[in-house]
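Archive entry: two folds, one per protein. Generate the first.
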Amino acid sequence: MRELTGAALRKVDMEDATADSRLFLIGSAASQAMSPGLWNPLLEQLGSSWTYEAWDVPAEQAMTRVRGRLLDRDVVAANVTMPHKQWAAGTADSSTDAVQLSGACNLLVRQGRRLHGHNTDITAAAVLLGNRYQRHALLLGAGGAARAALIALDRNVGKVSITDRDPNASGDLLHLALDLGIDAQAVTWQQAQDLASEASLIVNATPIGKGISDGPAWGDGPVAADALVYDFVYAGHVTASIAKAREAGATCVDGWDHLREQAVAMVPLLGLDGAADSLLAESLDGLKSRH
């Protein structure tokens, strides 16, 4: 299957795109996300006619209409968030190795009447995790974000414990970990909370923390001082998971960090001007200051 570079993708698309082209964010709570507030100022500064729009798509909605809309000539691409990342991987006509390996896709780029799938979550997580070896990674949640973290670890981990409110989701992610040759186990939510104090990496891949009254994703227990806490949630407040980790002296990666890095990874895939990287930083600073 032939892979296209970002520049080639944009060349194909711009030949048949209309003047006013759209980027979408698709998810069950897309309208609550801050991505439009990040991308629209950047696009305006670049002098682009593109707009970035949130599109709420409930979990139970039939996705045939969604795919059909993404193939319209005014669509450039769509970011995909919970709970549709696995659907996006399945609906892509072609995709990167990372998407095929993880079974999750967070970016669909239109190429004529075809959709090409990417996973910039994996790219971002790999950058933010670095090459640090993790003796024990605890994954809270087993959806697309957790899959990205697992792939980004790239076997640079001793053991992985996986939990999710849905045991079937935990089981699916466990199978992926075992297929990758990783020593992994699926545990209950309570067992995961008990394991948090010994983990060197805790990944919150759940919505816990979006609410200002939410506690730490792993409950009230302690975390190790040498731990890395990676919280995919970004909000207008410091999440309790990040606050607790900071109190313990742990290293923290928050949802804002992840939002920045996955956006940076999108720039070449959309064929945007090189100035977009610096403008992204400015746009993100402005967004954070307003929240």
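Generate the second and append.
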Amino acid sequence: MPKIPIVLVVLIVTTSSLWSCSTVGLHSDQGFSYKEIPIARETAKTGEGATILFRGTPLPLSGIEVKAGESLRVSPLAKGDLSLVNIQESKGMVRIISVVPSLDTKVCEQQTHYLSEKTQGLDQQVQLITISVDTPFAQDRFAKEAGIANVEFLSDFRGGEFGKTHGLLLEGPHVLARAVMVVDANNVIRYLQVTPDLGHMPDMDQAFQVARTLLN
């Protein structure tokens, strides 16, 4: 049997490490290890005509533009058991909704950990939600491997309806733009930030601050 070249084995390991949520080195006995990822201070527009940078290339958004001050729109999302829930039906309490392209990348992973771990007790008073196009099975696996239990994961994998109805769908790669929104108990979006560059984190601390003001 021919031997596998050593260089081929190295390439396989390297490729896997780029995309795995549980990559060696990202976690330690003390928990998640945060990286120096740029934080966006500005926001991009949503919907048709807007673009988001992906590795330096502008990609067009599709769907209906949404702004802070408007209501969260009707859109079905899949839960872990594949049942569908209308995002509007989560009304009744303040929600911080973190929108990520795919949990299987380091920026999305860090954004989700930040949502879970950096609220300083806010998670006891508001609902934390992460939305991505990952399948519910992948979301469930990620949550278990990351030890995240205080965030509800909802999937837009069926047709990107949440992305389309909120102008956050990048149709080319069929992923969601990176964003964070704070929604009040009456389904009004009180804060919305869409990062102009997909490789940058949203200002999660600002979203937490807005959520706190809604509780007072």
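Annotation attached to the second fold: The chain has a mean pLDDT of 87. Residues 6-19 form the longest helix (14 residues).
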